[in-house]
Each structure stands twice: as structure tokens, then as C-alpha cells.
Amino acid sequence: MTQPSDSKKKPFSTTAAPAYAAAGVDLDHDEAFIDDVKEIAKSTFRPEVLSSIGGFAGMFKAPERYQNPVFVAATDGVGTKLKLAAQIGRYDTIGIDCVAMVVNDLVVQGAEPLIFLDYIAMADLDKTIASDALRGVAEGCRRTGAALIGGETATMPGVYPKGELEIVGFSVGVVERDQVIDGSSIAEGDVLIGLASSGFHSNGYSLVRSVLDAGIKAGKFELFDQPDGLRTSLASALLAPTRIYVKPLLNLIRDFDVHGMVHVTGGGFDGNIPRVLPAGVRARVDTEAWPRPEVFDWIARAGELPETELLRVFNCGIGMIAIVPPESADEVLDRLQGLGERGYRIGVVERKDEGEPAILFDPGFLAGE
Question: What was the pLDDT predicted at 25?
Fold first, then answer.
């Protein structure tokens, strides 16, 4: 006689799924990384944070001092500078780059960055690499004053090369509605104040790597060489993290009438200054008005690049521009110096006739004024 079967399923628990691990995703290994993330992120928290790392989403409230808040959001990545980081084997600064590229876009609208989220993806989770990158993100958030309230760490075998990673950032900031900076008040006679960059920041690295690879292949230099004119090795100069301008600019706009700001990012001067100019005016820029970091001279020589190419690809030593009324330009420069920034009067706003370009490069014109 056949015995009746017990149809009741027995309770069970799961450990790492062997098939999933064999496919390249070790859940136990990856999920244990969350504790590391919590420890890294907690030093960035602000009073407005309402959640902790590990939930499905991060929560925060608007600072109470804002009466009519406008929220401003931005996202960006580090681009092919990541390939160079992998080539050098150093990941501790790319997190700063990731934060900088996002929050610098927020502050040009007058916004105070409040929160930051990151996305890191790898073929398999290398905790050392991921931790280095996240510590850079946390450092960038501390320099900004933004809270790292969450993110995503994705294991994607077959999508990314082993030992490399993708990193992307997302941020939300806030500004009073009547204090939004959109460039609409820029007028003829306004002065362009440039803030010094730390080098290439995180733009133009496809060209940088092309010049670098060609030079190495031709035996002209090696990655860890110190070419004539550079104070550091090529590796250090090329991985110098992007400057974060948030705190000095928030200080500036608190006390001065700033008509517009420009984050000199992808597209260099040509691609970014015209973005903030209203109709009927143009920017006249003196390209000899500031000292360029030596790394720009290096790439110009090594890649035989003309000045026009440098200005349309790179920041050429100016990572941010504040456009201010002429009567306050000297005070703005003094304030920036007091805040530890190197600022330069690099140009003026002029009337533009129909059909004329929105930006005119005029080397040396300010020297005669």
C-alpha cells in the first residue's frame, strides 16, 4: 500500500546561491560590503537626513531656513578618466571627481548641494577598489557639505572588464526661488572672473589617453616619468582630482551680486560660456590673463595640438567662471583669495551684433586696460 506523501513544505533558509556565484555574482560577498558603505558614508550626514544607508531609498528634508525652495538636480560621471585610473591602479581620487562634476553643475545655479548618491558597477566586486572609490566620494561630499545618503553597487560580469569600474553620481541641491542664477541678468560691461583648475579635471580624457598612448608607444615617455616642465609624474598630473568650487561660490553669492556662473566642463570655453549668455551679448576672453597648469603645455607639445583645439576641449586652467558687475570685480577677487581660491580677471561681456560668435578670444587685451 502506498503511503500518502507529506505535501507540507518544510521551512528553509538560503545562503549564497551556488549557481549565481558560479555565474559571477557572489551575494554573500557583495551584501557584506553594505556595512563598509555605512561606515564610509556616516561622516557626511547632515541634520536633514532622515534615513540610514541600507534601505531601498534615501530620505531627507529641506533645510528649514529656506522660505521658497527650488530643488535642483544633476548627474554626471568621470568618463574615460576611469580607464587611466585602472591603468595606473589608483582609485582613491576618482570618487572626488565624481562628486565634483555633479555639484559644480548645481552651484552655478546658485544651489547648495544637499544630498549625493553614487552608482558603482564592476564585473565582480573588488572591495578594495570599491572602497577606495567610495572613500573618494565621501571626501568629495565633505568638501561640498552634501550628505551621501545612498547609492548602488552593481556586479555585472561580462559588461565591464575585470579590475575596472564605472562610477556615476547624482545630487540634489536647493536655492531660494528669487536667488536662482540663470545668466539672465548678465549685461554689457560685466567682468568674467576665472577660478583656477587643478588640471584636466574629468574632461577630454579620450584625447588625453590618445596622446599618452601614442607617446608611450613611440618611446617618448612613460606613464610615471616626469617630463620637462611638470612638477610631478604624468600619472599624478593626469589623475589630479577635479576641484570642488561649492563652498567658496556659496560664500561669494551670499554677499555679492553674481549675474552668472560657468562650470568649464566638457566642451571647454567654446562649449560652456555661451550657455549662460543672454541674447545680444558675447564674452571677450583674454587667454593670457591666467597661468596655465604645466600639464596643458605638456599635452600641447606631446599631441601637437593647436590653441583652438585646447580651448574647445579643455578648461586650460580655469575650472569655473563667475560673471559679476564691474564695480564689484576687485572685491570678488579679494574674497576668493581670502577663501583660498586663485581668481583672475579673464574677460568682459560686450554687445554682440547679429551673426557674431558668442565668444571672442583676444590674447593680451586686458594688459592694455
Answer: 54
Q: What is the pTM of this model?
A: 0.89
Q: What is the C-alpha separation between 298 and 239, in angstroms, rounded?
A: 15
Assigned superfamily of 191-203+236-368: PurM-like C-terminal domain (3.90.650.10)
Query: Topology of domain 26-179, per CATH?
Result: 60s Ribosomal Protein L30; Chain: A; (3.30.1330)
* Residue 127 to residue 130: CA distance in whole angstroms: 5
> What single DSSP character describes residue 172?
E
What tens digit of pLDDT does each residue of 294-332 get?
A: 999 999 999 999 999 999 999 999 999 999 999 999 999
Residue 260 burial (CB < 10 Å; 0-12/13-18/19+)?
A: buried
Take residue 24 and report the three cell numbers written for it.
559571477
The packing angle between helices 127-144 and 94-107, to 10°, is 30
Number of CB atoms found within 10 A of residue 252's CB: 24
- 339-356 pLDDT tens trace: 999 999 999 999 999 989
The helix or strand, by DSSP H or E, that contains position 348, with its residue range, turns out to be strand 343-351
Residue with grid cell 597661468, as numbered in its chain: 291
